Amino acid sequence: MLHVKGISKSYTSQIVLKGISFDLEESRLLAITGSNGSGKSTLLKGIVGEIDFDEGTVTIDKDTVMAYLPQQIADNDLKAKEYVFSAHPVLAEAFEQIKSTEDPFVYGEALDRFHSLGGYDMEREIDKNLAYFGFCESDGEKVFSAFSEGEKRLLGIIRLMITGARLFLLDEPTNHLDIAHCVMLEEYILQKKEQRYAFLLVSHDRAFIDRVADRTLYLERGSSISVEGGYSALLSHKEQTFSVRERHAEELQRKIRQLEREIIQKKQWAQKVERTKRHNPHADKGYIGHQSARLAKRATAVSGRLNALVESMKEEKPFIEKPLNLSFLDYPVSSRVVIRAEQIEKQFEGRVVLSGIAIDCTTKDRIGIIGENGSGKTTLMRILVNDLPPDAGVCYRNDGVRWLYLPQDIRRFFTHEILLENMTRYDQSEVFVRQALGAARIRNERAFSKVDELSRGELMRCALVAAILAKTEFLFMDEPTNHLDIESLEVLHALLDQYSGGFLFISHDRYFIAQQAKTLYWLTRQRLVLMGTQAGDPASEVSGRPNEP
Predict the structure, then answer these.
(1) Poorest-confidence range of 70-84, 186-200, 237-251, 414-428?
(2) CA distance 434 to 95
(3) What would the 3-class secondary structure string for 296-346 be?
(4) Which of 45, 254, 288, 503 is the most buried (most CB within 10 A)?
(5) What is the pLDDT of residue 456?
(6) pLDDT higher than threshold 90 for residue 318
(7) Is residue 193 in some structural domain?
(8) Has residue 328 got a pLDDT over 70?
(9) Nearest-angstrom CA–CA distance, 455 and 39
(10) Mean pLDDT of all residues in 160-189
(11) How far apart are CA 74 and CA 159, in angstroms?
């Protein structure tokens, strides 16, 4: 279906894509992942023709129709069903005339046109898809802009399915989706693959990639890794590659040190010869002069070899990045009660959001809360951290426990304009703070950046470093993985694995839940339901609903 060969793209002096090649056949799904700025969306935009590549070719098989879902879907004033039909302008016009015209002649013509274009079959398919993703019949008449961001993405996918395309390019299709809808989308895509559809998608959702991908392409700093399977296969490959390349890097470092010693030795000999020449004006001729020139030439050659090896190290850096080590920031945390909530209730405009909520947290707990969008998770979190008063019930907070709240909009956590100014308020030296930031891959002059100039992933890393610097004993985190790239997600896990305290988090990220939650609750029907005391496989145990009372 799709054949990409030797694709390269640069912006000014920055290489974004370099020599990317792959084939995508029917009934296959290729997932593309990598850090922010690695060229994932650029690759999709180039394939659909929104931008031009510098080098390479893109070939689509004859009669293959392609459809594209961008990362951002523009709002519009169309009703949901009208928006879906808008993929077929002529059909959409006939559909609108049927619904709105009072002229019997216009109505009859529109009805005939709608029928001749297969409108009734298509409408049944649309209704079927809307129902599959949980839309009710009245939602078809709801204005598109009134839906949540997750619902808009689902409507966008349904819209693509009536275009006649069999090759789909999806940019972050699970963004803003709750767990239940992620699972629905997985099943939907797997069904379509069986029907000989093909998919090329960009995603940071590791559980989603594991479930649907036949092959995964990892982009990083102009380079790429391609593996059969999903994210778990990629992770295994990277770990193996790291071991091999780490050994190679150690060998390169050994050679570099040897060359450095050789250069110093050659320069010392050259300096010795030069001193001899100064005391003997005839020494620049004959044997001594010849030796001096020969040593200088060898020193230059060795320097060239050294520079080549250094450049080789730079090329391999993306794949030999060492795991984080924040052990120097470790501190003891004893088991103590953080908060005890009893019979919490909350309403908004007469709608009950929370009812009879009870939860206890200690400094050794690692608790996850999941639930559908709009179920009240953030409301509960804000009540627990005293950012919102409950209508009823009480929260007992232990004033002796040091805790921090990391909101969904992580920029709210930072009170100063410059990043480093936020980090030096915890009675630690600037040198120590920069060492900690460096361990979290916030290096060099990046520490002096404005908060508004940093990515969400970078800010989340910094917030966790701040929590460690402040020696907090408990964290409240609202969607800590939202919009983080793969690199930031891996760093986040490493930081939390080394964190001494406990935490309570809200998340839709099944992979994160499975790795970090020791106790898991589902917020449903205004109540907290205990799902388990140890999260399991991210693609299975965290994918379904609990047995509700």
Answers:
(1) 237-251
(2) 62
(3) HHHHHHHHHHHHHHHHHHHHHHHHCCCCCCCHHHCCCCCCCEEEEEEEEEE
(4) 503
(5) 81
(6) no
(7) yes
(8) no
(9) 16
(10) 91
(11) 14
Say if 375 falls within a structural domain: yes
CATH no. for residue 396?
3.40.50.300
Beta bridge partners of 4: 22, 58
Lowest mean pLDDT among 13-17, 69-73, 159-163, 213-217: 13-17
Residue 298 neighbours by CB distance under 10 Å: 15
**Does one domain contain both 349 and 443?**
yes
Question: If you search the block for the tokens 């998608």, which residue do you land on?
Answer: 201
- Write b or e for each residue in 257-266: b if 16 or more Cβ atoms lie within 10 A of its Cβ, otherwise e: eebeebbeeb
Neighbours of 398 (CB within 10 A): 17
Burial of 11 (0-12, 13-18, 19+ CB in 10 A): exposed
263 and 194 fall within a common domain: no
Q: How many domains does the chain have?
A: 3
Same structural domain, 348 and 212: no
Q: The domain containing residue 6 runs over which residues?
A: 2-236
- Check: CB of residue 219 under 8 Å from CB of residue 38: yes
Q: Report in angstroms the alpha-carbon separations of 358 from 345, 426, 449, 533, 542.
A: 10, 33, 42, 16, 22
Same domain, 285 and 343: no
The answer to whether residues 172 and 150 touch, using CB atoms and an 8 Å cutoff, is: no
Judge if pTM exceeds 0.85. no
Given a contact cutoff of 8 angstroms between Cβ atoms, the answer to whether 233 and 216 are in contact is: yes
Average pLDDT across the chain, whole number: 83
In this prediction, residue 305 carries a pLDDT of: 62
What does the pLDDT average to over 494-521?
90
Please give the Cα distance from 522 to 375 (Å, whole number).
Answer: 10
Confidence of residue 291 (pLDDT cuts 50, 70, 90): low
Residues 420, 479, single domain; the answer is: yes
Are both 198 and 310 inside the same structural domain?
Answer: no
Residue type at position 405: Y
Copy the structure tokens of residue 119: 């409108």
Separation CA 204–CA 35 (nearest Å): 9
Tell me: do 125 and 71 sit in the same domain: yes
- Whether 416 and 422 have beta carbons less than 8 Å apart is answered as yes
Tell me: pLDDT of 539 over 50. no
Q: Is residue 543 part of a domain?
A: no
What average pLDDT does this structure show over 280-288?
54
Longest dimension (CA), the chain: 114
**Mean pLDDT of the region 450-471:** 86
Residue 270 is predicted with a pLDDT of: 60
With respect to residue 125, please indicate whether it lies within any of the assigned structural domains: yes
Rounded Cα distance, 396 and 400, in Å:
12
Closest by Cα among 210, 75, 77, 99 to 156? 75
Q: How far is CA 498 from CA 332, 430, 433, in A?
A: 12, 22, 17
Give the pLDDT score at 184. 92
User: What's the CA gap between 207 and 226, in Å, rounded?
Assistant: 18
162 with 295, same domain: the answer is no
